[in-house]
Design brief:
The protein has 302 residues and is mainly alpha-helical. The protein is built from 8 helices and 6 strands, in the order H-H-H-E-E-H-H-H-H-E-E-E-E-H. The chain has a two-stranded antiparallel sheet. Strands 3-6 form a two-stranded antiparallel sheet. Strands 4-5 form a two-stranded antiparallel sheet. A hairpin with a 2-residue loop joins strand 4 and strand 5.
Amino acid sequence: MVSAPLPDLNSLDVEALRALVMAQRVEIERQQELHQQAHSNYAEQYSAHVETLSAQRLEIERLQLLIAKLRRMVFGTKSEKVRVQLDQLELQLEELEAAQAAAETHVEPLAAKTRTRSRKPLPEHLPREVVNHLPEQTCCCPGCGGELHHFGEDVAEVLEYVPANFKVIRHVRPKFACKGCERVIEAAAPSRPIARGLAGPGLLAHVLVAKYADHLPLYRQSEMYAREGIDLDRSTLAGWVGAASELLSPLVAALRNHVLAGTKLHADDRGPRGQVFVRGVVTRLFRCFHPSDMNPSLGTPA
């Protein structure tokens, strides 16, 4: 608000000066009242945000305790129902934590950080990309013009994600012909995981891990690849999975021999999330645990 300019005080009489002082006093009281009202409204909003954050933190702690309890019950008699309930609670906890982070942005930064969080350092094995941020002037001080010297630096790390991308590896085999006998010489073709297949070993491993470790169906993987401009339908991916299972059969046999070499074998009647369709019959799988994986005293390791 722009205040009106003061008149020439020397030209005013006593009554005019008294009226001017009273007008200024009324204006100051009005400004103070507006300031107190704005402060009161802000205090109410801040108190409401603090109460919301406190309630969300209590709910997050309750869900964390409940999830920890359900995780200890996973191998019980009703483990399937427990796992479904656990997945639902994990999703609820994720949504609540996201809502809490959004609510904290409406509170003052200093007031919102009522508790300090110990942040884990980023893994050392990750590659580091150093970005130097230099001031506009590095030779002389912008204030006095004195010479600047480097005495330290502030370092902050940000975890970034580089999206996975596809690439095409072109295998080129030059051909050479003998001028004397016209014999053609060419290097042998490199071996492929699948004969005459399009997928390389890295792509096959990615498809298998996404399907069996991350529980990502093939049709969803096909949709993800389509967003990258790669046309891989579900039937093609299914053929790759079947061919890869044949490639991994020696490893499966070795694991089977290792597991059956023990004196005891513990099994859990809780089946996996999926079922296996073999020769027109839906077969339920069972989880088996080698005794040496849980307690060496329960059996002799292979």
